[in-house]
Design goal:
Layout: H1 6-9, H2 16-23, H3 27-36, E1 44-48, H4 54-61, E2 65-70, H5 73-86, E3 92-96, E4 109-115, H6 123-136, E5 137-148, H7 154-175, H8 185-192, E6 194-202, E7 207-214, H9 235-243, E8 255-259, E9 268-272, H10 275-285, E10 290-295, H11 302-308, H12 313-323, E11 333-336, H13 346-353, E12 356-359, H14 367-372, H15 388-412, H16 420-435, H17 444-465, H18 470-491, H19 500-527
Parallel strand pairs: 1-2, 1-4, 2-3, 4-5, 9-10, 9-11, 11-12
Antiparallel strand pairs: 5-7, 6-7, 8-10
Helix pairs in contact: 6-12, 12-13, 15-16, 16-18, 17-18, 18-19
């Protein structure tokens, strides 16, 4: 089974266990029995992601004291009812919290359990959860993880990915969420400070049960080198990332990277885990002795991630905890990119992490000068420059993306659609960025409307001179105006001068306008004889 399907089952707590048993071919019942065999009377158990409370209740029946945690209130309600029905409610405490923010006593638990809950976390959250587990456990305590993994054998791996792809689509449509198989589980256990006692796989290698004992001394936290990134992050990866700039986010590994020979008091810069962003920042950090904290922004660049809430104090906190940066760096001072200011507040970083935060320059190329100035920003380091070179740099992937979008309808509406339209879109994708500052107003759709009306007027003159009929002239005018408005709004996401709230307001005008243009075009095509 692909346990991504459990995201749908979570909407029905009463049928969660039966659904897991049905789609798991019975193997998970055996796994749960193995997990239960480690629980003894008098143990204190922390069950993270307890679901409907089945495992927590069985532990309580064996005489253990359990703290059961889940982020889903419906699951906790069902678990509480089940505990009362089983008569063990006095041995179970329920807590509504996420795996990365739960509150529990340190160093008192005999067992910490993650049962089909680790795969619901992002990679950085998985590291945080496992690092937290060692703090909750007694010396010699056990960490038990049972979750979805990618099979090791090729045939099983192919079958696993085929099944998962189908379930991924269904699950996302229903829940708008997905799960992620836990990768490199053995490596993570050891890196977090656990000796592996048991590692078993089930369900054709797609379900793994791993049990680890807390080491007496934790390993040193790993520090990454930018030179150890996988090969796809080289020139081919950057070309691919550039050409897919408008619709494909290319993430890299999050973590703490070192440049030069940094010490405990070296500066710590922060950036996003987007390939092109990392490449640009890395280029200008070489030659400095510093650290670079790459946080999980879901593979989105700094400015867009801050606007979407993915470059926040909470994300910085999770990355600091995942990398155990406190054990490596004493300065407790972070230098954030200035373009993250819309998503991060100084006091939130200080409150959540204990680290101070300051904003550095806007552009990575100014970092060496910023360091040389004693970490003081000059006036030019605070100014966004969206000049012709910047606009033309983003034009090729932007123009290709727009042309691709308008190429798809050509395959469906061949009789109503001209092959010239994608070609025209490609041209507009270059013209609009070039003409951007010359067009009046500061509203993107108005700039597009002005350019569209100019283009429609030029097309009208050309078609009249060529003796084209009135129907064709009106159709092309509608196409050009609609296309330039669409291009203008799409370019807002590539621009360094747009504002999320104002763009959102513009869409309330643009969507009806484009709807009217499309309906008018179709109506003329069918009704004008």
């Amino acid at each position: 089974m692909s346990y991504i399907f459990m995201k749908i089952l979570e909407r029905r707590p009463a049928s969660y266990d039966s659904g897991i048993a049905k789609y798991g071919a019975g193997d998970f019942a055996e796994v749960r029995g193995r997990m239960l065999s480690f629980v003894k009377a008098g143990n204190r158990v922390l069950d993270v992601g307890c679901g409907p409370g089945t495992f927590a209740i069985e532990c309580a029946k064996k005489g253990a004291v359990v703290e059961a945690v889940d982020v889903n209130p419906a699951m906790l309600y069902a678990a509480d009812l089940a505990a009362k029905k089983a008569g063990v409610e006095d041995r179970i405490t329920f807590q509504h919290a996420s795996a990365t923010e739960l509150e529990a006593e340190r160093g008192v638990f005999d067992i910490v359990v993650f049962s089909l809950s680790m795969s619901e976390l992002r990679e950085v959250e998985q590291w945080v959860a496992m690092h937290s587990a060692i703090e909750f456990l007694k010396p010699g305590g056990k960490l038990i993880v049972a979750d979805e993994v990618v099979p090791a054998q090729t045939a099983q791996k192919v079958w696993y990915h085929l099944r998962r792809l189908l379930l991924l689509l269904v699950t996302y449509v229903v829940t708008r969420t997905v799960t992620r198989p836990v990768r490199d589980m053995e490596e993570r256990f050891r890196a977090c400070g656990f000796d592996i006692e048991r590692a078993d796989t089930y369900e054709r290698g797609s379900l793994q049960l791993m049990v680890g004992n807390r080491m007496e001394r934790r390993p040193e936290p790993p520090v990454l080198s930018p030179n150890t990134l996988p090969g796809w992050t080289g020139i081919p990866g950057r070309i691919y990332s550039y050409l897919t700039l408008t619709f494909k986010d290319v993430p890299i590994r999050t973590g703490l990277y070192e440049f030069g020979h940094p010490g405990k008091d070296s500066p710590v810069f922060v950036t996003a885990n987007y390939l092109l962003t990392f490449a640009a920042v890395s280029k200008h950090l070489r030659g400095l002795d510093c650290y670079l904290l790459v946080i999980d922004t879901r593979g989105i660049n700094v400015w867009c991630a801050a606007g979407k809430g993915n470059f926040s104090a909470e994300d910085i906190r999770d990355s600091l905890r995942a990398t155990r940066a406190d054990d490596i760096i004493e300065t407790r001072r972070l230098i954030l990119p200035k373009l993250s200011a819309s998503g991060v507040r100084y006091r939130d970083v200080k409150r959540l992490t204990g680290w101070e935060a300051v904003f550095g320059p806007i552009y990575a190329r100014d970092i060496p000068e910023y360091v040389g100035n004693g970490f003081v920003r000059s006036e030019h380091m605070e100014r966004v420059r969206f000049d012709l070179a910047d606009r033309m740099w983003v034009s090729p992937p932007f123009a290709l993306f727009v042309a691709f979008l308008l190429l798809v309808p050509l395959l469906i509406f061949r009789h109503l659609y001209s092959p010239l339209i994608p070609a025209l879109a490609l041209a507009v994708g270059f013209v609009f960025p070039a003409a951007f500052p010359l067009l009046p107003t500061n509203r993107f759709f108005k700039k597009g409307l002005v350019l569209g009306l100019i283009g429609a007027a030029c097309a009208t003159v050309f078609l009249l001179a060529a003796g084209a009929p009135a129907k064709e002239i009106i159709q092309w005018a509608l196409i050009i105006v609609g296309m330039t408005v669409f291009v203008a709004m799409d370019f807002s996401g590539m621009s360094a001068v747009s504002n999320y709230s104002r763009i959102k307001e513009e869409y309330y005008v643009v969507v009806p306008l484009l709807g009217i243009i499309i309906v008018s075009y179709v109506a003329i095509s069918f009704l004008w004889r």
